[in-house]
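In response to the reviewer comment on reproducibility (Comment 2.3), we provide here a single inverse folding case reported in full, input and output, so that an independent group could reproduce the run without further information from us. The structure tokens appear first.
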């Protein structure tokens, strides 16, 4: 369906789309097209299988070159979302972890509220065949699920981006969502949060808490999810770092 009119001013902005381990360049291009349809122009790629830049992506983008030209490449998911304040993980599968689950419509209101505060938001999508890993989902604050036929809820990558992007585009700029009142204290970004996780997990390894070894990964994931549900602020993390320092000092003194 044709609809390009370069005489009109574009509407651009919105959340950052992060594709983790995308496989085909064509799919990246179709995602870029879906993004620009909805005024989204910030794309990040984590380990694209067929390399980057990719001529197949340009052909499939059908003119959404500005999205591809601005795309940024990352080696891992944590670095791709390091500067974000809130991350939504798109998933059609049930996950064995406790996280808020929101529809695209509700998420759109939340994302507009975040934009009004100047908070950076990311939408996280996994590879075409398998979707996001549980470790990637554990880095997100919320699960984003599209309510579709429960017996056949599978979307391709570009469809998923388009559905979520459409709700963002349609949402009123004064929409309100399920956001924590932080009394002016900024939310911690993901780089600060991952740094705290690393320190906490190192301290727990030293104390012998994360045992037996075969259960460590699941325990770490549960702890990360627990802390993410707090929606921690910068001050929250400073306090938690102080707790770890005090406990470590107490162990050394004894």
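Designed residues, in position order:
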């Amino acid at each position: 369906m044709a609809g390009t009119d370069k005489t009109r001013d574009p509407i651009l902005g919105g959340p950052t789309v992060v594709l983790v381990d995308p496989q085909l360049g064509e799919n990246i291009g179709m995602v870029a097209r879906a993004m620009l349809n909805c005024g989204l122009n910030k794309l990040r790629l984590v380990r694209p299988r067929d390399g980057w830049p990719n001529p197949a992506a340009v052909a499939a983008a059908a003119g959404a070159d500005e999205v591809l030209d601005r795309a940024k490449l990352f080696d891992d998911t944590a670095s791709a979302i390091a500067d974000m304040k809130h991350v939504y993980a798109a998933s059609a599968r049930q996950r064995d972890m406790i996280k808020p689950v929101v529809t695209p419509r509700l998420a759109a209101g939340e994302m507009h509220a975040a934009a009004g505060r100047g908070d950076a938001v990311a939408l996280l999508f996994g590879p075409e065949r398998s979707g996001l890993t549980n470790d990637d989902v554990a880095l997100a604050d919320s699960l984003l699920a599209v309510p579709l036929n429960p017996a056949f809820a599978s979307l391709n990558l570009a469809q998923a981006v388009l559905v979520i992007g459409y709700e963002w585009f349609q949402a009123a700029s004064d929409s309100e969502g399920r956001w924590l009142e932080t009394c002016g204290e900024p939310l911690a970004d993901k780089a600060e949060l991952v740094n705290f996780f690393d320190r906490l997990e190192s301290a727990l390894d030293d104390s012998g808490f994360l045992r037996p070894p075969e259960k460590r990964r699941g325990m770490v994931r549960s702890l990360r999810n627990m802390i993410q549900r707090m929606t921690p602020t910068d001050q929250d993390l400073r306090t938690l770092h102080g707790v770890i320092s005090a406990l470590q000092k107490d162990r050394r003194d004894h």
